[in-house]
Write a structure and sequence with these properties.
Blueprint: E1 2-13, E2 16-28
Antiparallel strand pairs: 1-2
């Protein structure tokens, strides 16, 4: 099992804070699959 709890990611762009993730939790059980999708050009790490 892999688990994440209450994940947050904030980008600072000048005087503006952009909350890309806020309070995200995820559990992936053994044998399950997970995909990360997004617009072309957006950064997605696996």
């Amino acid at each position: 099992m892999v688990g994440l709890e209450n994940i947050a990611k904030i980008y600072v762009m000048g005087d503006v804070e952009v909350r890309a993730l806020n309070g995200v939790s995820l559990t992936i059980e053994e044998g399950e699959y997970c995909s990360i999708i997004g617009a072309s050009g957006s950064v997605k790490f696996t």
